[in-house]
Design brief:
With 442 residues, the chain is of the alpha/beta class. The protein contains 13 helices and 16 strands. The strands form 3 sheets. Strands 9-8-10-11-12-13-14-15-16 form a 9-stranded mixed β-sheet, with helices on both faces. Strands 4-5-6-7 form a 4-stranded antiparallel β-sheet, with no helix packed on it. The chain has a 3-stranded antiparallel β-sheet with strand order 1-2-3. It starts with 18 loop residues before the first helix and ends in a 6-residue tail after the last helix.
Length: 442
């Protein structure tokens, strides 16, 4: 991975998830074929090379009712090679496999040899002296299988549902590694444990004198295994500043497609034509997925004249609107959203911060009254999330961080406040998929 090395896939250097994201699907697919779906998974991963972002080494323990297995995988471990690697990285067969049974041990060596070791360990019999990689033949067999199934109307061996179970294991590695605990949440159902952060900032905040950096976001994704983040500008008063921050966000979404998305946040007090022009540019040209109203920073009432023009545009462009609540009374009261939510029932409105504890009572009241109101859970008590999940449904709440260094706190709160696994999944990613990504191909 060193600079200057010829890599067939040089983008590996910048992937926040690497070894088990790229190769885990192959290993786990083979593992499931041989042993079936495990009930438990525990993982430790690390990065050795200074030239990459993601992990290049890790150990995964897979548990069953009456046996266990483990994967010890590394792109950083030195070992005696059966053949030189050469100057260019290529597909060299280096994996080993050992299966211990009651009557013997089956071994696959790095040179492709397959043997059986007797029960007493005294005799090793060669089954295949050498097996080789044959990419061309495997592709031919795969495509022939697809064609045959299409003609016969039969399901592929590698069906979408089956692949989701393999992906569940691959993502389970990161879930276990970041939490330092066993992952055991319904592997059979094939759910993918995404983490989507719907509330994050990038740029200099001209109101609160804070700098939200690119490095903060990349580190958040790496340390806490966040899969997607919706970025909005920090607070800007003038058009020129917010345009610059919108462009910076757009550049990051292009650099990391499918990882970062944009949310527009120009000052609603700008002249209507200028405001609409910038919102349309963000949504229609830059591909942003929502609009923000910062009631405190821009001193705007969400149901006032300039607030309603935001909802007018959101309705036309069919995007959700996030609204700051909590600090900044009287503009930031969650109850201020009731008139707008009732006037625009077809617009999904997100109550940012759930009123920040002090106004949390208004959040529950407003959401009871207006079914198009949702909320992000930043700066909100865990006991409230548990109560609201029971009363309003977890499908109306979304994970967010606001500040990148708040990610660990927000995740710990969500995971330890007594929510069911299903409710956690809604808050971690399912609600966000429904609100922000319904029209985006998954």
């Amino acid at each position: 991975m060193a600079p200057g090395a010829r890599l067939p896939q040089p983008f590996f250097r910048d992937m926040p998830k690497l070894l088990f994201y790229e190769m885990g699907v192959h290993w786990f697919d083979t593992w499931r074929y041989l042993f079936g779906m495990p009930k438990r998974l525990y993982a430790e991963i690390t990065r050795v090379s200074p030239y990459i972002v993601g992990e290049d080494s890790g150990i995964v323990v897979l548990g069953y009712d009456d046996f266990y297995g483990f994967l010890d995988m590394s792109w950083a471990t030195r070992q005696k090679l059966d053949q030189p690697l050469g100057d260019q990285v290529g597909p060299v067969h280096l994996e080993q496999l050992v299966i211990d049974g009651q009557n013997g041990t089956l071994k696959l060596y790095t040179d492709g040899k397959i043997t059986i070791l007797s029960r007493d360990g005294q005799m090793e019999r060669t089954i295949e002296p050498k097996t080789c990689l044959d990419h061309e033949e495997s592709h031919y067999r795969l495509q022939s299988h697809f064609v045959a199934c299409l003609e016969a109307g039969e399901e592929f061996q590698t069906s979408g549902h089956d692949n989701l179970q393999t992906l569940r294991l691959a993502f389970g590695v990161y879930e276990s590694a970041v939490q330092h605990r066993t992952a055991q949440s319904n592997f059979e159902q094939g759910a993918i444990p995404l983490i989507i952060d719907v509330h994050a900032h990038l740029g200099w905040d001209y109101v609160f004198d804070e700098h939200f950096t690119r490095e903060d976001q990349l580190n958040k994704h790496k340390i806490f295994q966040v899969d997607r983040t919706i970025l909005q500008p920090a607070s800007c008063h003038d058009l020129e500043s917010v345009v610059d921050q919108h462009n910076t966000i757009a550049a990051l979404t292009q650099e990391f497609p499918g990882v970062f998305y944009g949310m527009a946040n120009p000052n609603p007090h700008l002249k209507a034509a200028l405001y609409e022009q910038e919102i349309r540019r963000c949504i229609e040209e830059l591909g942003f997925v929502g609009i923000k109203i910062h009631t405190f920073a821009h001193a705007v009432h969400p149901s006032g004249h300039d607030g309603r023009k935001v909802f007018d545009l959101a309705r036309k462009l069919q995007v959700p609107v996030m609204v700051h609540t909590g600090s900044g009374i009287p503009f930031a009261n969650p109850s201020n959203l009731i008139p707008a939510a009732e006037q625009y029932p077809d617009v999904k409105i997100i109550i940012a911060h759930c009123g920040m504890m002090i106004m949390a009572g208004e959040t529950g009241m407003a959401m009871k009254r207006c079914p198009n109101l949702y909320a992000d859970i930043t700066w909100t008590g865990g006991f409230l999330l548990r109560h609201w999940a029971e009363e309003l449904g977890a499908h109306r709440f979304m994970f967010g961080t606001d500040h990148a260094d708040n990610a660990g706190t927000e995740l710990a709160k969500l995971r330890t406040c007594g929510l069911s696994d299903a409710d956690q999944e809604w808050m971690l990613y399912k609600t966000a998929l429904d609100v922000y990504f319904r029209n985006i191909v998954e």
